[in-house]
């Protein structure tokens, strides 16, 4: 067993983990599996390339109940998923997610509520036989979906309370963690969704240059490279813009994307996965994005539709290949994680590129060691 915690900060997220180490020279390949896209690749080779699967989500308020619940609602079970992967693959349960912060708020209030929450999480881990948990509180300290209604300064107390909640959780789960000497902490850097409805200018949602800059910020603050995992988004985003120039689309003004009073979504930006059916009203524009998009100087892919003033941003297979070599490899990172596994169905081409890239880096590292 191991525990996993998450803090999400404005446009990106880092998640801190304590876990039993994999083989020292392996690169991590962590995949979220979601209830919306509960699809696994048929290819055994692809499944065998995944080191961790995180089942998303269990609701945070579930663990505030006293007495604890009789069962733990999830779209699947740990044991059901485990049978499709190698025995060494870790299966985690994610708690929370976007729009589900109320349970964390209640849990973090005081010492008794923190103890109750941690105790119930431990019981869930033991009952489901999960290898760990992913705590996805979006966001402690504010910047949530209601940030214009409840100002961030009214939630500043959550920042300290979050650490106390994690401390309680660590202590409560301590006796379920195997006594393994070689344990590692790793941090998942959520380098996707880098444009959202709070933005006012066009940029990539998972651009290579922006991703590199985000990772470098953590490295500059002392994060060991081997502990850092790069985030990949297996989905498409679009944003409505003002009139732009194809030659200078980055930095072009977007249309107003959220209600200035409530922060509500105005329907001028959205996303869908590769597993989703493309909405009829977006079909022609998306087809143009696939066929006529461009690679920018850093290797990122995007397309501005001059007919609809719509910006498309997503990772192609080639962009992911570039990330494997220029980011994971060149920066010496410990691996990757992606949202999400089923989102790349049915072809799983981005997953294949991810795993092939990690294998190539692994083989290159071993070849270098053999030459020494």
UniProtKB/TrEMBL annotation:
GO biological process annotation, one example: carbohydrate metabolic process
Keywords of this entry: Signal
Annotated transmembrane regions: none
Signal peptide location: 1-21
Domain GH18: 27-361
Entry's EC annotation: 3.2.1.14
Source domain of life: Eukaryota
Family of the protein in this entry: Belongs to the glycosyl hydrolase 18 family. Chitinase class V subfamily.
Name of the protein in its database record: chitinase
């Amino acid at each position: 067993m191991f525990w996993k915690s998450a803090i999400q900060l404005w446009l990106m997220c880092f998640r801190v983990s304590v876990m039993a180490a994999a083989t020292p020279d392996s690169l991590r390949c962590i995949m979220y599996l979601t209830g919306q896209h509960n699809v696994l690749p048929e290819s055994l080779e692809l499944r065998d390339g995944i080191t961790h699967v995180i089942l998303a989500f269990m609701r945070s308020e579930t663990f505030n109940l006293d007495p604890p619940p009789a069962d733990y609602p999830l779209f699947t079970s740990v044991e059901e998923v485990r049978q499709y992967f190698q025995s060494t693959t870790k299966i985690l349960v994610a708690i929370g997610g976007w729009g589900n912060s109320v349970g964390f708020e209640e849990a973090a209030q005081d010492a008794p509520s923190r103890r109750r929450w941690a105790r119930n999480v431990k019981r869930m881990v033991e009952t489901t036989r999960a290898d760990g948990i992913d705590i996805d509180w979006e966001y402690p300290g504010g910047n949530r979906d209601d940030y214009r209604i409840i100002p961030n300064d009214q939630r500043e107390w959550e920042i300290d309370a979050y650490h106390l909640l994690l401390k309680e959780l660590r202590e409560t789960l301590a006796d379920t963690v195997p006594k393994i000497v070689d344990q590692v902490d790793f941090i998942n850097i959520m380098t996707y969704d880098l444009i959202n409805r709070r933005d006012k200018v066009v940029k990539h949602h998972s651009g290579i240059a922006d991703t590199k800059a985000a990772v470098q910020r953590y490295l500059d603050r002392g994060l060991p490279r081997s502990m850092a995992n790069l985030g990949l988004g297996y989905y498409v985003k679009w944003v409505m813009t003002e009139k732009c120039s194809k030659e200078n689309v980055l930095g072009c003004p977007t249309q107003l994307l959220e209600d200035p009073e409530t922060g509500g979504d105005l329907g001028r930006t959205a996303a869908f996965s590769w597993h989703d059916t493309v909405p009829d009203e977006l079909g022609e524009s998306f087809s143009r994005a696939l066929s006529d998009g461009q690679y920018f100087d850093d290797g990122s892919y995007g397309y501005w539709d001059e007919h609809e003033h719509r910006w498309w941003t997503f990772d192609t297979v080639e962009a992911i290949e570039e990330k494997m070599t220029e980011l994971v490899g060149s920066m010496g990172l410990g691996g990757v994680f992606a949202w999400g596994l089923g989102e790349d169905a049915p072809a799983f081409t981005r997953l294949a590129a991810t795993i092939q890239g990690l294998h190539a880096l692994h083989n290159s590292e071993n070849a270098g060691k053999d030459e020494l």
